[in-house]
Fold each of these.
Amino acid sequence: MYEHDIWRLHFVCRVTINEAESPGDGVAGIDLGICNLATVSYGDESVLYPGGALKEDEYYFAKKRAETDDSASHEARRLDTKRTDRRTHFLHTLSKDIVSECSKRGVGTIVVGDLGGIREDENGDARNWGKHGNLDLHGWAFDRFTSMLAYKAEERGISVVTKSERNTSKTCSACGQSDDRQRVQRGLYVCECGLVANADSNGAENIRRKVLPNPPNEDRDNGWLAQPAVRLFDCSEGRFAPREQVVNREP
Ligand SMILES: [Zn+2]
């Protein structure tokens, strides 16, 4: 521009911020499953994300799909596309909610249970675990969820690490023991050391501990493990919210 009898050249620089500042030093652990699609442990609080909305969708589309006479028809393809879109939307919403909740709580590292250890047993044979159901059917969700979570977390300066889930559902997160003194009944994990926990919360806490230097401490207050919060997918709003806030509306 020309001002005060001299020409000035103005440069505008756009700087891309590659490294977002980490929200804090906190560590969260995520256990992935079928009933609760994701269970997050923050070390003093646990949050469940039931997969009910996704499951209802799967039933709906499987039924509609069966009603079409020709599986190669335009209608069948339309249904497949719609189902995939809805799955994708659900997983995006889930990963976004978890990252946002982690950010609020000062979490800088998220540990996700890697299902590699569950897909295969000690001999390397694929097997079905009761808790995880049929992984052929659900493997897509876990893999897609983990990659969505990783890039959303990175944008917020949170790192995501995966650790083997091996033994995390069997081990007591309070005393660290994994023998015949523990049992899982109706979703509750009960150990002779006194721990009574939501089974998925206990698993998520064990996953969280995988990156922590300190061994479990029996004296720690772990009452929160028995009372996880629940965040439900609100179909009308298309987002997750605390269970109390989700109004059940007929579809
Ligand atoms: Zn124990």
Amino acid sequence: MPTTQTLAANKYPVTVIIGLEVHVQLKTQTKLFCGCTTQFGMPANSQVCPVCLGMPGALPVMNREAIKLSVRTGLALNCDIPPLTKWDRKQYFYPDLPKGYQISQFDLPICADGFVEITDPANPDAIRRIGIIRAHLEEDAGKSMHDESSGVSDSKIDLNRCGTPLLEIVSQPDLRSADEAKAYLSELKLLLTHLGVSDCEMQQGSLRVDANVNLHIDVDGKKVATPIVEVKNLNSFRNVGRALDYEVERQLIAWEDTGETIDDAPKRTFGWDDVNERTFAQREKEESADYRYFPDPDLLPVRLPREWVEELGQTLGELPAATRTRLQDQFGLKTYDSDVIVNQGPAVIEYFETAATRSGDARKTSSWMLQDVMRTMKERDLNAKSFPIPAERLGDLVHQIVDGKLDNARARDVFEYLLEHDDSVDAALAALGIESVNEDDIVDLCRELLAENPQVIADVQAGKQQAVGALIGKARGKNPNANPKVVRQTLLDLIAQS
Ligand SMILES: [Zn+2]
């Protein structure tokens, strides 16, 4: 948010209208219409051929895998998959587009009319359904690099990305806040990585976002809309959030200043300045008529047989939304816990399921997962596969707590030990000298403590139950294996009997 401006002056109700266009690089070995590799980080212009360079007479050949990945995505996004799809040329001139046109899909996209469900960031128990207008396949352009370090402006072109398959997923303008936009992107990313469609590495440009945003302002019962701004090429979820927050405030102030509405200027194209944390105007956006779309004469339309699409549908596996519901129904997890676990991906889900089944207490297991396990993973840059404590062993540890053999503090000691030693929980208990203390010993210990601290008896009898708290630490000092909960209850029982 810009710090010098506030929303305070506004007296009209404002509805924020956001739609996102997400460009996802598909995880194919080769480009969309030629055999060049799509590997990231190779020397500039080393992954090119006459087809992706746009040499006259070179003919494109469609990549089947890209079609398959797109259909899988469309099915997971609840889209209709049409029986026929086709390729169109989108004409524009830019130095990083040597062909002078981009092969894309205009009026017959490969996926249409779907939706994604997200957890409402303002209410974790509510689900918001975000419509998907379409998803179409297209090829990426190259990359221009402007180097001004030598003092002389120097531009270079790297065409390695030219022809890389992108799926552009266009949402309905159903998002109502920057937080919702981020929740939608997280869910989309989760779905795409789950399907193995894309690795969604934003730093490598394999997921890029254009955000369309404007405001509907209710002026005494009459709806006024501000011009739509498309903020291009946002390369992190954080920047999507910041750009949207900034635009909401900027548009409101601009409207208050100038009264300009969507009728005066339908749409503008902006960029995001990460350093100064503001959006800025770019070239005016072309209308689709300016691109002179026409069917690509070098490529046949693509038939998508019903049976083939249905077969693909059966290979999707359990999608993240279904896993969340299952963790809630089968394991009794709360919405928040199931969200966190599912959002970590398949390996963490599997780890949790194994540990929870072993421990016999899914909620307690999930609380250990969300706190100790994930914190350690983050601190040590580990994942569920490289984590030193196997899922079964964590299950055994939690089981000891559930059984009352270990309190949380002692369990944490065992956890720390297991992080460093490839031992069973029993071996860890032995190594740490932890043994369960029998009831008689606890009673003796508590009697001793009460004899030494008669004031506590008087306080508890006067109604101050919390006074026993002072003795629990002392019990630990006498016997580190004494379970604080059991000590507390024993003390209260003895005082009641005295
Ligand atoms: Zn090529």
